[in-house]
Structures are given as structure tokens and as C-alpha cells.
């Protein structure tokens, strides 16, 4: 059996000031004025390379209000700057999209809610092949693997 080339991504927590500049330029071109909650949400994504739940965003921003966070996320998603991702039992999260299309996917633990990012060239090639064979105009994809992390699986085994 050949080893599956999976790289556990280092994207989590990756600070990227260039992303903030890129995102601002897109917002400016779309006619949005800089400032307010949207700007704060954007700055947060520039510092964070992986998914955040709307609740976590609201908390990190010190309570700008859930409605403002959702509005900002909707606008950023519409402009292709962030995308919705499945966080398992935690619900939906959002994470930034890179201008070059580089991205990662997730493993989610349904017991403790921990999130691990991974990248796989082989998975990307398989998805590209399916896209090509389909009659769909495929614009994107997200992949979330759900289950128990090693620690939770071990604990469940012990208590059983
Ligand atoms: Zn992520
Ligand atoms: Zn992918």
C-alpha cells in the first residue's frame, strides 16, 4: 500500500498581513467603505488561517454584535474572501480564501469539537477529475471528515 500523502496543514493561526491588503482592495473595488465591524472581522481573518465560528468572532471582537458579524460574513463571502465550512457539532464556521486558491480541509472531532486542518494533493486531483467529468461548472468544494480524535477515541475505549 502506498502512503497517502496527507500533510497536516500549518495554516491554523497563520498571520498574513498581505491577505488583509488583498481583501481591502477587493472591498474597495466593490464600493465598500473601510471601517466598522467588517474591517474588524477582516483583520481577524488576516491573523487566522483557519475556521472561526460567528460566535467566536463576536467574542474575539469584544461583542460588536452577532448581527454585525453575520452581515460582515455575508458580504465577505459574497466577494469570495471567506467561505463557509462545516465545523461538525459546532455548526458553521468561516475561513479566509487565499487569492491563489491554495486551501486545506478539516477533520472535526464530534466529541470535543477540536479541528485539525489537512491538505492532500491526491484528494485535490480526485476532485478535479470528478469536476471535469461532471457537467457542472464547479467553482469550489469543501471537505470535512467527522469522527473522534485520537484522544476522545482512546477515552471512549477506556470507559466502555
Ligand atoms: Zn481551516
Ligand atoms: Zn480541496
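Sequence proposed for the structure above (160 residues):
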Amino acid at each position: 500500500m502506498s502512503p497517502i500523502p496527507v500533510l497536516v496543514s500549518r495554516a491554523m493561526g497563520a498571520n498574513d498581513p498581505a491577505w488583509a491588503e488583498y481583501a481591502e482592495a477587493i472591498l474597495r473595488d466593490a464600493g465598500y467603505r473601510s471601517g466598522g465591524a467588517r474591517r474588524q472581522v477582516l483583520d481577524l481573518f488576516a491573523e487566522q488561517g483557519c475556521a472561526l465560528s460567528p460566535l467566536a468572532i463576536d467574542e474575539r471582537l469584544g461583542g460588536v454584535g452577532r448581527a454585525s458579524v453575520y452581515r460582515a460574513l455575508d458580504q465577505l463571502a459574497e466577494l469570495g474572501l471567506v467561505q463557509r465550512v462545516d465545523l461538525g457539532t459546532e455548526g458553521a464556521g468561516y475561513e479566509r480564501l487565499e487569492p491563489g486558491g491554495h486551501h486545506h480541509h478539516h477533520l472535526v472531532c464530534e466529541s470535543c469539537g477540536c479541528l485539525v486542518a489537512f491538505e492532500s494533493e491526491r484528494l485535490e486531483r480526485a476532485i478535479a477529475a470528478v469536476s471535469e467529468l461532471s457537467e457542472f461548472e464547479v467553482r469550489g468544494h469543501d471537505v470535512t471528515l467527522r469522527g473522534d480524535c485520537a484522544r476522545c477515541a482512546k477515552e471512549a475505549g477506556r470507559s466502555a
